[in-house]
Amino acid sequence: MSELRFRVVETAFRKRPAHVEIPSERPSEYFARYVFNKEKMFKYLPGGVYAKLVDVIENNVPLDSGIADEVAAGMKRWAVEMGATHYTHWFHPLTEGTAEKHDAFVEPDGKGGMIEEFTGKLLVQQEPDASSFPNGGIRNTFETRGYSAWDPSSPAFIVDDTLCIPTVFIAYTGESLDYKAPLLKALRAVNKAATDVCHYFYPEVKKVVAYLGWEQEYFLVDEGLYAARPDLLMTGRTLTGHDSAKNQQLEDHYFGAIPPRVGAFMKDLEIEALKLGIPVKTRHNEVAPNQFELAPVFEECNLAVDHNMLIMALMRKIARNHGFRVLLHEKPFKGINGSGKHNNWSLGTDTGVLLMAPGKTSEENLCFIVFIVNTLMAVYRHNGLLKASISSATNAHRLGANEAPPAIISSFLGTQVSQMLNLIEESEKDELVSMDGKHGMKLDIPQIPELLIDNTDRNRTSPFAFTGNRFEFRAVGSEANCASAMIALNTAVAEQLAEFKVEVDALMEKGEERVSALLEVVRRYLKICKPIRFDGNGYSEEWKAEAARRGLDCETSVPLIFDNYLSKASVEMFERMAVMTRKELEARNEVKWETYTKKIQIESRVLGDLVMNHIIPVATEYQSKLLDNVWKMQALFTAGKASELSAKDLELIEEIAHHTAFVKEHVDKMVEARKEANRVACEREKAIAYHDRIVPMMEEIRYHIDKLELVVDDQMWTLPKYRELLFIR
Known about the structure:
By secondary structure, the chain is an alpha+beta fold. It is built from 24 helices and 19 strands. The strands form four sheets. Strands 9, 10, 11, 12, 13, 14, 15, 18 and 19 form a nine-stranded mixed sheet that branches. Strands 1, 2, 5, 6, 7 and 8 form a six-stranded mixed sheet that branches. It is globular, with a radius of gyration of 29 Å.
């Protein structure tokens, strides 16, 4: 092992303290301590102002600008009491991250001193430089003005000494430049459309809420090892590295005992998350070594998205306190499971009805069927768009591998739901059907209680699976902003429900009974959307061929998948639902293509640097040592004996020469191909060039580097290997 690598590995594996100070209070006592929630609003705001603000949050009524100053004063008083000295508008630009600019609660008093001040104007809006964020041409360098605007539906919170105010981010010309603005519009659209359909069953419903429960998967690596891998540091994944002899093949890591150091990190993370109002509940080892997961209780979709962005930032910060780095890349290590962020999505009414859950009566089940079938229709009609919403340069490494759903959108329903829908489709009678809930299963072990079995099995190969009372969108990537998938899904469902209501109302106006009209439209939809339903093995080659025959989107090139955003059906849907305009969609696609190109470009450059500064120097140095050994044997032994003794060394010398020559030649070709691609003016065509030419070259180069790793002296190899990166000591 090289001296540098030895020092890095030895330091990383040195025992670190696994103790974390646990607060003396119970979690319920410090939950949301740093959140300006309704409890804090009630305490710090005048009664009338509190009532108006709650009405804005709960009923989506327009904000009365007259209360802004009083809200700002109360918010500032609370924040200062909690130790805050600054405030910031916290928003989600098109970077997959968050943005913030901190300002102090101070203004000159005109007498040579300072006063603490925070006005309603500062709370409601600010002016970030819009041209410095990805904008797809909506803003030029000389057109910098943009606005961030307060989102009252997501509560302000404090991180360190700064009050963070969730906001939307728009251009001076009005187009959205973030994820939150179109998400809020999509949630408004699905609320209206779903509420209208709910009135067929529950006239008292006033609001439908979209819920989201994300499951965040991630890797941890020792900070010292991370720093010794330029590829991890610069790209978030290993661009080289041969499989460890042991990785996940024994399946012993999944749900295994959590390593003490990791447990200390998890406890610390949970404490800080709970203080910020993030209702984290579940933690466990995932399938791959050093891979873990955390998940919260379900929340309203907009708040859940904010909390996921916040938890990712929190994870990065707290991991360093424990000598770790968090890897959120979808595929940081080749040959083992990657990381996803399953999005569990459902709809519920303000009266407590879960619209994706089977009911106890036939009437309730008809409502369930209506919403399930309309969701399937939305997914079928826009399966290409949904795939585009989760596609990226990083998630492309994960989708279709053994641990992730394929890059073909389909929906698993399970035997019971499928049988019920088939019965409705084939029946000619307007009969309401019932569906069994959980049923008991007794084991032949006296001391084990009866188990309650769900109405569906689970299918990990399905990208969009029904799991009993919700759909699980499993294809979302671990480092993605959930809002991207939620914008597409909620808008598609809103459009579909709106069309459903038009068709049902038309039949009822002609004199058909309500149930008959509902079932007639449902039956027709079931026939149309049947291609999206698939309960089998999504990994099989047979399914890929079958999906193509069914007319589902089977494209695998990420730049081409993005075209779905600009299809006629997508543009019409987003504009009809008042979520995004064609101009906004075109701008976002420019950002997506440009981001794809830049990520592959960075990876290609880093790989070239690794080859020239690590791989070839080490391989040729080892080759020189072998040559020196051969020369010495020839000087010491007879020709025949020397030839016999040095045969293995000569084979290694030849093998190393073959691999290094290939690597050097193809890195040079890759550089030239990159230069040629960079001359392409169109962002879409440039991204396609990087996908079609650069990515395959990187894979070919990696193959030969990984072969070199197997034969070069371990004491000389400078880069920490998988066996060191993947097993926490």
